[in-house]
Structures are given as structure tokens and as C-alpha cells.
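Recap slide: Copper chaperone PCu(A)C, sequence and predicted structure.
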Amino acid sequence: MLTRTVLASAVLACAFLAGCGSSSEPSKASAPAASSAAPAAALTVRDPWVKAADTGMTAAFGTLVNNTGADVTIESATSPASPLELHTMAMQDGKMVMRPKEGGFVIKAGATHELSPGGDHLMLMKPSAAIKPGDELSFTLKLSGGGTVAFTAVAKPFAGAQESYDPGMHGSMPSASASAHS
């Protein structure tokens, strides 16, 4: 279980993310951090959570809140728990498939952007260990313009949307096993 002490070290290390869960309600815990290019409250992450998973890929979710008068773009993210990609779900050949989010996540001025099962999410590609319910995972979002936002998400069980993290679902996935949703 990652602690808040590990979170501070992890943010400095800028590693990658991991997580998962089985409850249909996201965690109410939120720990937004300051961006080096914007005021501390410019972008916050509300109700972050990660889907608990014993093996394979999983994802992190929450609500991105832009408290400024200008659009904010998240161009990448990291976590000490796993290599991470920004992902979206899209229709392809009549079915929903997961793929990297080209151009990052854009949060309009004064608006919110949902990261949710079956939609945009932070994809933990190869978690280094099982992610158990209650684990706290740290993440750092990199904004266009060089700022960063750090937050912690709690892992929880989640059987919800039943989306597949099968490596064959998009072109950039490695051929490793990826049954993150159960």
C-alpha cells in the first residue's frame, strides 16, 4: 500500500500509475496539488479512484476540474505503480475499443472533464504489483506549458462497465495479458 510519504517521493520520481476497484461509487478522497505553471487551484482532481486488480492492466478515474479562465490540456501522466497512458474509448468497426487519447485531455475554461469506466481514463499499462482495495496510488499529471498536478487515488473493487483492456483493442498495446476487469 502506497502511503502519502511514498506519494511525495513518487511525485519527485515521476514514475507511472496503477490501480483498480469493484465498487460502483468512486472514492471521495482528493488531494490536488499545485502546478508549477499555474496557481495551486488551477486544476484539481475530484473523487479520484483506481480499479483494484490482481494482475494485468487497470485504470484510474475521477473528475478533472479547471478552475481557470483558460483551457488546460493534460498531455501525459505518471505514477510509481505502473507505466501510464492517457486513453479513451471510441467506436471502431461497430464496437467500442480503447486507444491512446491523441492530443491529451482538454479541460475547457471553468469546466470539468470526467475520467470514467467506458470513457476517458488513465491506463495503468503494467502495474508492478497487485492493486488491492484500499491501496493509495500517487499520480502526477503533466500539463501543456510545463505545469504538473499531483494527486492520490484509492483503489476499490469495481465490476461496472465491463470494458476490456485486451491488448488487441488498440495498436499501441503490448502483447501482455490484460484482463483487468472482472
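The helical segments are 4-13.
The CA atoms of residues 28 and 47 lie 4 Å apart.
(End of recap.)
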